[in-house]
Automatic annotation (TrEMBL):
The protein's name in its UniProt record: Integral membrane protein
Pfam families: DUF6198 (PF19700)
Annotated TM spans: 23-41, 61-81, 88-109, 121-142, 163-192
Keywords on record: Membrane, Transmembrane, Transmembrane helix
Length: 229
């Protein structure tokens, strides 16, 4: 009898442990994503595509860049409705956690002056962004609203994810730059390195499945599909 109780209790504990790990990864990843975006802002050497738009809108409206990120994320999430996309816990959490973490980091980090400080900041921001991407995607609680927009457009139009991503991000960067967002070496560095970095960290943070104990990473190349919140 004692053996049966132990056997029954084992999988339940293991399942709870996996769920706990996944939740920690999700929220740690989202918080670190916001922090990494803030480091890119502080460096002033160019932002990731959606960051350019957020900064441009912040300049236009006078709102903080974190609040703008939340508003844009919520607006993009509404676009999921005609695309028949279903959000997950990670999708909804993404909208709020990234923006709040971004504003908190910007308030805590002093202004950067001189390339000797700004270059390490942009490098740290890109690498941290890759780690954050691996954390929250490997948690498997759903894509970010912006990634879901691209995959939804792919399903509805039949065009490749790469084409949809390129079209959306070009439009986002051009609009953000016109509004005062920053494009620079950081933007280029992010574009060429985030895919390989995300792939590495997806494997590092892969969570074992409940059924067979094997680890799970996102299928395909992350550069072509889910990369950012």
């Amino acid at each position: 009898m004692h053996q049966a109780t132990t056997t029954t209790g084992g999988p339940t504990l293991s399942t709870q442990s996996r769920l706990g790990r996944r939740l920690i990864q999700l929220y740690a990843g989202l918080a670190l994503y916001g922090a990494s975006s803030a480091l890119l802002v502080e460096a002033g050497l160019g932002l990731e595509p959606w960051g350019v738009l957020h900064q441009g809108l912040a300049e236009l409206t006078g709102l903080s860049i974190g609040v703008v990120s939340i508003v844009v994320g919520a607006a993009v999430l509404f676009l999921w409705i005609p695309l028949r996309q279903r959000p997950g816990l990670g999708t909804v959490s993404n909208v709020f956690v990234v923006g709040l973490a971004m504003d908190a980091t910007l308030a805590a980090v002093p202004d950067a002056h001189g390339l000797a400080v700004r270059i390490p900041l942009v490098l740290a921001g890109v690498v941290l962004n890759g780690a954050a991407t691996g954390l929250y995607i490997a948690a498997r609680f759903g894509p970010g609203p912006r990634d879901g927009l691209m995959t939804g457009l792919h399903r509805r139009t039949g065009h490749s994810i790469r084409l949809m991503r390129t079209a959306v991000e070009v439009a986002v960067v051009v609009t953000g730059f016109a509004l005062g967002g920053t494009i620079g070496v950081g933007t280029v560095l992010y574009a060429v390195s985030i895919g390989p970095l995300a792939q590495v960290f997806l494997r590092v943070f892969a969570v074992p499945r409940a059924s067979d104990g094997s680890t799970v990473v996102a299928g395909g190349q992350p550069r072509g599909a889910i990369l950012r919140p």
